[in-house]
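Teaching note: in complex prediction, the entire set of molecules is handled at once rather than each chain in isolation. The prompt given to students was simply: 'Predict the structure of this complex.' The entities are:
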Amino acid sequence: MLNRRIFLRNAGLAMVGVGTAPLWLQRALYAADGSRKKILVAIFQRGAADGLNIVVPHGERHYYDMRPTIAIPRPSGADRENCAIDLDGFFGLHPALAPLKPVFDAQHLAIVHAAGSPDPTRSHFDAQDFMESGTPGLKVTGDGWLNRSLVPETSGVSPVRAVAMGAALPRVLHGRNNAVAIENLNSFQVRNDSASKVFQAMYADSSDSVLSGTGRETFDAVKLLQSIEKQPYHVGAEYPRGRFGDSLQQIAHLIKSDVGVEVAFADISGWDHHVNEVAQQPTQGQLAQRLAEFGQSLAAFWNDLGDRMADVALVTMSEFGRTARENGNRGTDHGHANVMFVMGGDVRGGKVYGDWPGLANEQLYEGRDLALTTDFRSVLGELVQTHLGNRDLRSVFPGFSSKSFRGLIKA
Amino acid sequence: MRRGAYYALAAVVLFAAGLSLYAKKTPSPFSIALSRDQKIVHALNRLTFGPRPGDFDDVKKMGLKKWIEVQLHPDRIAENPLLEEKLAPLDTLRMTPMELARNYPPPQLIKAMVEGKIPYPRDPDERMMVERAARRFKNKQGQNGDEAPTLENAGLTEDQQRILRRGAPPEKLKVFDSLLDEQQDEVLEAMPPGARVGLFSVAPPELRRKIQKSAGPQAVITQDLAEAKLLRAIYSNRQLGEVLTDFWYNHFNVFLDKGADRYLVTSYERDVIRPHVLGKFKDLLLATAESPAMLFYLDNFQSVSPNAMQMAARRNPQARPARGLNENYARELMELHTLGVDGGYTQRDVTEVARCFTGWSIRAPREGATFEFRERLHDNGPKMVLGYNIPPGGGIQDGLKVLDILAHHRSTARFISKKLAMRFVADNPPPSLMDKMAQTFLRKDGDLRAVMETMFNAPEFWSEGAYRAKLKSPLEMVASSVRALGAEVNFTFPLSQQLVQLGQPLYRKQEPTGYTNAGAEWVNSAALLARMNFAVALAANRIPGVKVDASRFHDTEDTNQIARELMLTDLSDQARAAIETGLQAKADNNSGPADSAARGRGARVPPAQQVPKPLVIAGLMLGSPDFQRR
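The expected output is the structure of the full assembly:
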């Protein structure tokens, strides 16, 4: 193994520029680097997911007072499917997240509660923008924290170093480093060879700065991805049907193909549950539906990657949480602090982190929402620094003085 | 000072002066005027979904000013008979929500029909459709309804079954036509969806309608909407009207797939948005506020005063648990519809506005949905909104007062002007232009036609800064490609599907922000690839429902002339060089069908059909960076 790596690296270096090396060789180079790069996968739940019903503070009396019809019942042996799954005697998982319990028990899933953005906005649009730009309160920031988390490199950079699943490149990946939006791995190409060459030349040489940059990145990525599409591939787990499952499956595919992915992003919408968040049973209603897709996909991702998970960390976030009290339509309105999940090989899992502020009236934010005790940037900052190895946090999260981390990652 | 230093200082001072002079001399691109011909191209790019063959000459003949004046009055423009012909079969477009519910019932109504609570529709086709849906419903309930038909038990020969399942579309049609009428309905229901699509692509209009209905009632409504929107963008003579309908629907966005909204968007676009796009903003705003579509989408129809429910609960302790205030609409009303996120409102205002709109509700949301103000659910206490005192006991007037305040607010004038300028001028419009438009908005009581006129009379609009400054949205790219090619469109369903891949599924933006007006946001790898693939397929006649003819280019194979036909401007040198190199390579290789590569990968592609050279060039041009701008 070692000999092969040295051979490949020398062979690669002997060629004039990575661009002329055959694709399989380029791929091998990313893997043969010796030190395997760490990978960060960021997941955004768009719409303000209800953290209080996702990781349930069943030990908190006020929770049940404030949510007479939509609280998730305390863990009980009697009706397992319809009550919270206990995690540590105080917190529990929504029953639809049962697939994640084994990962928690295996100590590779950590949870941070009462986490999120300090900015007071309750506008989805603004709050998502702030969480993606990594500078809450500042609208002028043009790029995103995930793009900034990449250490700038000039040579030997994979064209798919930063990947977003979907038809649009999200703000979180805007920035100086190249990032690619991929709707679907196997259709990521121009289907006509001669046209492909013409387009490539047109976009590469175009004086249209907006289009030519993206054009070039696109074709670099096409070449690389087409090379992995030609290889036989075996999916290592069963993902649920739906867009989110697809996204994670493809990210796993990219990671396992060693094409140099360092950061990846996917989102899942539909969390804005003003109405019918929880129906008559916790297993019904909008939240349960979303959590089923969410939990099953994350668990499948974990199983699919297997050993490879040693290099991967996955983090979830949502722009803000929801009101502590239900709103009278079996739903909740926009709130403040929320819950984040962190999953990975080097994660110190099996624990719910954070300082629980409580849900008594005087403990609420503005008298209505869960108060914030962990800034989302300290969770992300720890991942960027300790997991990815980028110590320059001041440029990743400008304006944020990182206090001590929660200790989510094994150093 | 030493002489050398003196000279050095003088040199620096002169240099700096020279620089500042130079800076003053370099004008902003928004103040450089366009040539006469450029103005016509620009007008066509901005006021329409893209120029069609002959449009340039038509505008030149009429005179640009006159043409714009005409476009600003869509009601006075005779509509394209081709468009009306193509819209005619799409009967859902003309129905009220009540008629939609009766003729294309939602699951709840089907249940009621099955239970005998309401009658089945009278039209035989629709009755058939409902009976099918009813059967599926019964099967789901576990009742042993009639068995679903299959191709095996429909009385077909083995051959016929095979062709219907997997044959080429024209063969499918032949077999289908040969069947008895009674067989046809059963067979349609029995065919797998993929096979149905193949038949659809070659079916005459009546049969297409039948096939659509066999997919289920709800699908017909949503498909008709997307079908019509593309047909209008491509064929309507009232182009500015359609561009504005798209703009304002997007501004007052409603997500089609949210529950009852599936049945409410048809009326919303037709009765609430389109008639008001060139009227007064306050009228448009009120119409959206009262529309069942918006009340449902942003949950206001369920927003009630907690006091009201407490009183009801006291009267009847067995009543349902209290519902409450819902702030969703109040927030988006201010943030997205009027003031803008920096328009100067607070969280307190949001709550107060929500209180004003309690009781604004819908009667029978899934069976005809009309606006209803429910006095008993309204919070009649005093409120304070944006510094205005709203006295108690105002009833429905509270909400009307809020709309009045918002419609006349300075922030609204600025926000609306900015959005319009972003769509029609540039992603970062010059402040001088936005100021002028905002002034008109305030002076003319929100008269949107006047605001548009201010914009079209401004030198900034007719400037280098605006010319080809906008990147096309996916809808604009698709529509302008079809228009530029002068293509004949029989149905737009495959084009709608393309829009999904390009990132803009019609009527399906989930967030209330609607789709962006900033062109640059559409540019990313997946989208670019999808545009290139679409362009090549469209020009090669591989998009079902759309027919392209090389005669469009009058027998020329010259790259420059084709560019001028398609884009009304010259192609950039880089694009031209790339195309010519590519054509040369093709000629040298003597390659066969353009998609041999695709065939090699095992894709199912029709047998060798040489794409005429002008169309090959056109495809490359439509996918070029040049064509992505308008």
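Point out the following to students. Chain A touches chain B through 56 residues (CB under 8 Å). Chain A is about 35% helix and 15% strand.
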